[in-house]
Amino acid sequence: MSRVLVGVDLGGTNVRAAVATGPATHAAVVRHPTPAQDGPDAVLDAVAACAREAAGDAEIGGLAIGIPGPLDPRRGIVHAAPHLAGWREVPAGDMLGARLGCPVSVRNDATLAGFAEWKAGAGVGASHFIFVTASTGVGGAVILDGRLHEGTGSAGEVGHTPVGADAPTCSQGHNGCLEGTASGTAIADAARRAVAAGEKTRLADITPADIDAKAVEEAALAGDEVAKRLFAVAGRALGRAVGGLINLLGPEVVAIGGGLINAGDLLFGPLRAAVPEIAFEVPASHCRIVEAALGTDAGMVGAVAWVVHTFG
Ligand SMILES: [Zn+2]
């Protein structure tokens, strides 16, 4: 029986699995709905079924899975997963290993997306690379000296660097971290506050509970000044964070991904302008700040690239 390596991208909506065909390439993707409300056992049953379907008649020699949420990558324990009901301290690595009879590597989904951008996207060829993804939350990954830097385990959480003690709280309860200002959630919250304060914006025509980052983006692209300001605030916070990371780590490339980059220059203009507020001129001159290249494929490519890296 042939042996294959399988990458899995677990999201709140879909499970995607594919067999690796090279260092960062994969065969056809098998996709099934995530039973997100049914608890960890049901979700991991679905993951195992999806992986087996992707493998077909072959034996699975190793599996890597990206999971959205804070986790312990060394022990494969997921501390929490905001889009998956009942996920608290779930030993996902052991549970999947028992189901599939193969070694399993568990990583944060943004970590694997960053690994994908380094192997096959915006960071190809760089020895020092930082990935930042700004969507519902803000995540990322750090590559140093040609290796994923994990520190004592979960390093690379660029979304939870400080932007100022007076800034809003993030989804993890940190006072004034980047995610509290520069995520889709933060932009939607700020939009609701602007509407509640009586600011003149077309967002006031939307039921407050229905305001999301997409609605703010559409308003901003249509010229709404309040919406444009909210993206500028998020962009500036990202730029200042990137400036600090440039000073700290000396990256050659910083790639920004996630849904917020659909706002284009409304985000990137203020982002680029804010980098020199913090960054030293010389390391900043050695660093390119670019849009991420892989879009929503990054999670799948990253899981495949990581399974090859780990078990290949
Ligand atoms: Zn935080």
How many individual helices? 10
Tell me the name of the CATH class of the largest domain.
Answer: Alpha Beta
Q: Give the CATH topology of the largest domain.
A: Nucleotidyltransferase, domain 5
Low-confidence stretches: none
- The residue-averaged pLDDT reads 97
Chemical compounds bound to the protein: zinc ion
Structural class: alpha/beta
Q: Tell me the series of helices and strands, N- to C-terminal.
A: EEEEHEEEEHEHEEEHHHHEHHEH
**Biggest beta sheet attributes:** 6 strands, mixed
Strand content: 15-25%
Number of discrete domains: 2
Relative helix content: 25-40%
Architecture per CATH nomenclature, i.e. the level-2 architecture of the largest domain: 2-Layer Sandwich
CATH superfamily of the largest domain: ATPase, nucleotide binding domain
- Rounded to an integer, what's the Rg over CA atoms? 20 Å
- End-to-end Cα distance, whole Å, is 17 Å
Note down, in words, how this protein is organized.
The longest helix has 25 residues, at 225-249. The radius of gyration is 20 Å and the shape is globular. The protein is 39% helix and 22% strand. It has 312 residues and is of the alpha/beta class. It has helices at residues 40-55, 92-100, 109-120, 179-182, 184-196, 213-221, 225-249, 265-278, 281-285, 298-311, and strands at 3-10, 14-22, 25-26, 30-33, 59-67, 71-72, 77-80, 88-90, 104-108, 129-134, 138-144, 147-148, 253-257, 288-291. The chain has two domains: 3-113 and 297-311, Nucleotidyltransferase, domain 5; 122-292, Nucleotidyltransferase, domain 5, CATH 3.30.420. The site of zinc ion has 6 residues, from loops.
